[in-house]
Amino acid sequence: MVEIKKILCAVDFSDHSPEVADYANMIAKCSGAQVLVLYVAPSLSQYVGFHVPPSSIESFVGEIVTGAEDTMESFVKDNFKELDVQSKVVTGYPAEEILAIADGENCDMVIMGTHGRKGIDRILFGSVAEKVVKSSKAPVLTVRPA
């Protein structure tokens, strides 16, 4: 029998994130699972060679992470009531970080939103959700914006 003990809920703090949280809430309540809410801030390390001092990039990323941690605290408080919830803010490439943390934390399921990119945007930016779905060891539930 399948057991869901830990759910990774990846969010980007967009207007769609509360809907993703609703699915994580529902499945966690039904299964008694713990929820790990994850936000991946961009690392910006790919810009080091563009005449921008690495210290400036590190400082900017630090500010992003601090802001994201504050936003995460509010997001968890507003969207996850009466549940066993942890939260984590990391920097890096979203798909890679989601996969690594889901694996490292032994998550039984990943829940995340999609942006529904099409055309040139999809070619240029790819799909984080698609990369996670193709590579995840755990089942992935994707929630498309309404």
Tell me what you see in this structure.
The protein contains five helices and five strands. The protein is an alpha/beta fold. The chain has a five-stranded parallel beta sheet, with helices on both faces. The mean pLDDT is 86.
List the helices and strands and how they pair.
Layout: E1 6-10, H1 17-31, E2 34-41, H2 54-79, E3 85-91, H3 94-104, E4 109-113, H4 119-125, H5 128-135, E5 140-143
Helix pairs in contact: 3-5
Q: Quick summary of this structure?
A:
The chain has a single domain, classed as Rossmann fold. Helix content is 46%, strand content 20%. The protein is built from five helices and five strands.
Q: What share of the residues does DSSP label as strand, in percent?
A: 15-25%
Q: Poorly predicted ranges (pLDDT <50, ≥5 residues)?
A: none
What is the name of the CATH class?
Alpha Beta
Distance N terminus to C terminus? Answer: 32 Å
Helix and strand pattern: EHEHEHEHHE
The order of strands across the largest sheet is 3-2-1-4-5
What Rg, in angstroms, do the CA atoms define?
A: 16 Å
* Total domain count: 1
Q: Tally of extended strands? A: 5
Q: Write out the CATH superfamily name.
A: HUPs
Question: What structural class should be given to the helix and strand makeup?
Answer: alpha/beta
Give the name of the CATH architecture.
Answer: 3-Layer(aba) Sandwich
Shape category: globular
Helix content: 40-55%
What is the residue-mean pLDDT, rounded to a whole number?
Answer: 86
Report the CATH topology name.
Answer: Rossmann fold
SS summary, helix count:
5
Main β-sheet description: 5 strands, parallel
